Amino acid sequence: QVQLVESGGGLVQSGGSLRLSCTASGIIFSLYSMGWYRQTPGKQREMVATISRAGVPIYADAMEGRVTISRDNAKSTMYLEMNNLKPEDTGVYYCNRADLWGQGTQVTVSS
User: Fold this and answer.
1) Could you give phi then psi for residue 49, rounded to 5 degrees?
2) Which pLDDT value is given to residue 78?
C-alpha cells in the first residue's frame, strides 16, 4: 500500500521546537523529491520546504532560518525540524510526494 504517514505534531509554546517525521511505504523513497506543506487557518495550503533526491533543500521565505528539512533514505523517512515556532505557524502539516499526500499532523503553537 502506497502511503505517507506523518507524526511528531503537538502543542508547543511560542519559541519552542518540534520535529516532524514522514515515513513512506509502498514507494522507492530514494527516487523522489519530497516536501512538507502546511495549511494554516484561513489560508491555502503552502509549501514549507522541499528536498530533492540528492538532499538539496528549498525553503519557503516565511520559514527559512527556522526549519531544517532532511531525509533518511534507508528509513524511507523525511524530517522537518522546526525551531522558534510562532503562533502563526499553527496548522496542519502535510508530507507530499507529487500527487501523494499524508493525512497531516497538527501543530499548535500557543502564545
Assistant:
1) -165, 150
2) 98
Instruction: Give the span between the Cα atoms of 9 and 7, in whole angstroms.
Output: 6
What percent of the chain is helix, strand and coil (3-state, nearest 5)? 10, 55, 40
| 77 to 40, 68, 80, 110: CA distances (angstroms) | 24, 14, 10, 28
Write the pLDDT tens digit of every residue in 75-108: 999 999 999 999 999 999 999 998 899 999 999 9
Mean pLDDT across the stretch 54-78? 95
With a CB cutoff of 8 Å and minimum separation 6, the contacts of 10 are 18, 106, 107, 108
Of 26, 22, 38, residue with least CA distance to 72? 22
CA distance 30 to 7: 20
